[in-house]
């Protein structure tokens, strides 16, 4: 396959960026999108040009580092992470536009790399859970209903990639936040600090400049882990309860 790439290039956070056009030849349909970008970077290196900066780590869909806006869609045309997107999802001769996540709370650092530290600061604002450390407790000593355990496990699969924020017209991180709050709120270990946690995390969300949720649903459609939209209802419910309790 031969593809034309229109890629956002920006030397650093303070500089203006622009779209640059590159041709990449001999792309295998079995390459991942990131492997195709590796090929481009080898070509740029050979020509003595600056390679395109982009993030990746695991390349297995589990670390959340690799988000790109591909043809206007977070992580591209499949429900997966950018590293698990393969070139067979495109057609020979395609022109593909590649941009960084676009959100006020995710400033561009260079080319396709954004600072997603705001998500980490929200987790930090959530604080600790007061469980005893030491050896693992006996598995049946704290019973958890099966439905709760399954849902907690499902929402805990959020990898913090930020696609939900990039896809949302409001730049809201409500799906991410809802996943984190729901995960701990369903488990006995999450109860003692439950009210404080949701209040502090929502305050940090707003402080970071993320927008509010208006129930559009673009977040859940873009989420590679298919986190359901109703975690945002749970988030709102937990926040109302915490406020009722005087937080
Ligand atoms: S909710 Fe989904 S899209 Fe948002 S950070 Fe988690 S995994 Fe990524
Ligand atoms: S590089 Fe880890 S999820 Fe894509």
Automatic annotation (TrEMBL):
Catalysed reactions, as listed in the record: a quinone + succinate = fumarate + a quinol
InterPro entries, sorted: 2Fe-2S_ferredoxin-like_sf, 2Fe-2S_ferredoxin-type, 2Fe2S_fd_BS, 4Fe4S_Fe-S-bd, 4Fe4S_Fe_S_CS, Beta-grasp_dom_sf, Helical_ferredxn, SDH/FRD_Iron-Sulfur
Annotated NCBIfam families: dhsB (TIGR00384), PRK07570.1 (NF005746)
EC numbers, comma separated: 1.3.5.1
Cofactor: [2Fe-2S] cluster; [3Fe-4S] cluster; [4Fe-4S] cluster
Protein's name according to its UniProt entry: Succinate dehydrogenase iron-sulfur subunit
Domain 4Fe-4S ferredoxin-type: 149-178
Species of provenance: Nocardioides renjunii
SUPFAM superfamilies on file: 2Fe-2S ferredoxin-like (SSF54292), alpha-helical ferredoxin (SSF46548)
